[in-house]
Amino acid sequence: MPVTSVPPQPFPAQPLSPLDGRYAAAVGALAEYLSEAGLNRARVEVEVEWLITLTDRSLFGTSPLSEADQERLRALYRDFGQDEIDWLSAKEAVTRHDVKAVEYLVRDRLSALGLDAIAELTHFACTSEDINSASYALTVQRAVTRVWLPKLRTVISTLRTMADELRDAAMLARTHGQPATPTTMGKELAVFAYRLERVAAQVEASDFLAKFSGATGTWSAHLAADPDVDWPALTRAFIEGLGIGFNPLTTQIESHDWQVELYDRIRHAGGILHNLATDIWTYISLGYFSQIPVAGATGSSTMPHKINPIRFENAEANLELSGALLGSLSQTLVTSRLQRDLTDSTTQRNIGVALGHSLLALDNLTRGLGEISLAQPVLDADLDANWEVLAEAIQTVVRAEIAAGRSQITDPYALLKDLTRGRRVGAPELADFVNGLDIGDAAKARLLALTPATYIGLAAQLVDEA
Fold first, then answer.
1. Do 220 and 332 sit in the same domain of this protein?
2. Domain named Adenylosuccinate lyase PurB C-terminal: which ranges (predicted)?
3. What are phi and psi of 210, to 5 degrees?
4. Is 2 contained in some domain?
5. Residue 125: φ, ψ to 5°
6. Which residues of the chain have a pLDDT value below 70?
């Protein structure tokens, strides 16, 4: 029998996703909110707070719970742990319905607390999507604001610090990959900080919406139970009391438009971060940045001299994965057939995966940016080898001199094109060329004083915009 046909011994249970295995330490904070356990804890929170809301208003013959009983109820989600996780897993195996299992958990705990009298108000007049929409709004809001956004802000802060430190570090720009008007490394990093700050502000301003209006969004069961209650006002106050927004006009589901908007913004941030990763990778390949060796680390398995830019390559790949998942979430969640279909249920279970890959990229970018240092001599040598980039300055000054009546030159652009296009021109050749120009003495002096390293305009000052 061929060796390859022998079945391998099965492993002990292993995580299928690298986010839950190799990279768990970097993204584990998201699991507090976006795991199945995190979602179920939020569902218990919504069920408990709805119970407290109904009894606070003495509906259906109830009386407000004492503060002690309210705190004991709230402990059901505050102390949610492995016992509840196991209980729900066993119950869902029977119910084949995750939200119903949560309802049974709350009822079971009410009995244990001696609060059976209010048990029938558990999940009162709710469709599963009332509980789910509130739970997803809570978990996504907390994951984004407490975990993802702080990590993005760390990258932005790092870029701002580097931009300020390197504000005067002149370097040759490359447009279309070719030598172009010089800039500074600080200004180029400030561009990324500025772009990311705009998107971060948009994410911070995001809505996190829930509905709580029953089976098809009409409060029908609520009104059947008590037509004298202002159910839209009551449920709005309840949802807003949880710290999320209220959507009053829905089908059976909250329409998920806020999620589409949010994931598109996070995907936008990912695109900018991807651009940052590829640019830094390119600067490393040009020698503009040197990588700081990490003690004991292997750069290449066979070439000892190398330090591979793995932080930026890892970030690049994870941003592509995250972007693909976020795009799929946006595309899927924007649509629901008629009043309800279940495509969103499966899709939303991957929110944590999408944000996990993004968070892993942010972690790698933060670490990568801390492991590089500017090689200014390389930048200086590159500038000194490309004096032809001053052609732009020369032809622009000549045009100004012509407009001022101090020059008889015609077509200065063509004049400089003939001198520099496809050719390397050094400092002596440019000096001779400028000295021979028909322009005023002051303009000539300004041009002769220019070097590629000083032809950076307002680059250093522009760093302050970030």
1. yes
2. 336-456
3. -135, 160
4. no
5. 60, 20
6. 1-4, 294-306
Exposed/middle/buried for 312, CB within 10 Å: 0-12, 13-18, 19+?
A: buried
Please tell me whether residues 146 and 122 are part of one structural domain.
no
3-state DSSP call for residue 174?
strand
- Dist. CA 225–CA 138, nearest whole Å: 28
Residues 107 and 138 in one domain: no
371 lies in some domain: yes
Structure tokens at 66: 């004492």
Strand partners, 179: 174
Residues 342 and 440 grouped into a single domain:
no
The predicted model scores a pTM of 0.93
The answer to whether residues 347 and 333 touch, using CB atoms and an 8 Å cutoff, is: yes
Please check whether residues 92 and 239 belong to one and the same domain.
no
Residue 210 pairs with which residues in a beta bridge? 246
- The burial class, CB within 10 Å (0-12 / 13-18 / 19+), for 383 is buried
What domain range includes position 116? 24-126
* Residues in Cβ contact with 443 at an 8 Å cutoff, skipping those fewer than 6 apart: 397, 400, 401, 406
Distance (Å, whole) CA 117 – CA 366: 54
Verify that 322 and 448 share a domain, yes or no: no
* pLDDT of amino acid 298: 59
Domain end marker among 359, 377, 395: 377
Looking at the fold, whether 143 and 160 belong to one and the same domain comes out as yes
Radius of gyration of the chain (CA): 31
Nearest in space to 110 (alpha carbons), one of 56, 63, 44, 60: 44
Tokens in use for 239? 């949802």
SS3 374: strand
Residue 40 buriedness (CB in 10 A; 0-12 / 13-18 / 19+): buried
Instruction: Enumerate the β-bridge partners of residue 183.
Output: 171
pLDDT tens-digit map of 205-249:
999 999 999 999 999 999 999 999 999 999 999 999 999 999 999
Q: Which residue in 370, 366, 372 sits closest to 150, CA to CA?
A: 366
Tokens of residue 360, six digits: 């892993």
SS3 215: coil
Per the CB < 8 A criterion, the answer to whether 169 and 374 are in contact is yes
Residue 26 amino acid letter: A
Quick one: 33 and 142 in the same domain? Answer: no
Catalytic center residues? 176, 300
Q: Which two tokens stand for residue 225?
A: 């139970």
At 238, the amino acid letter reads F
Q: CA 54 to CA 62: how far, in whole Å?
A: 8
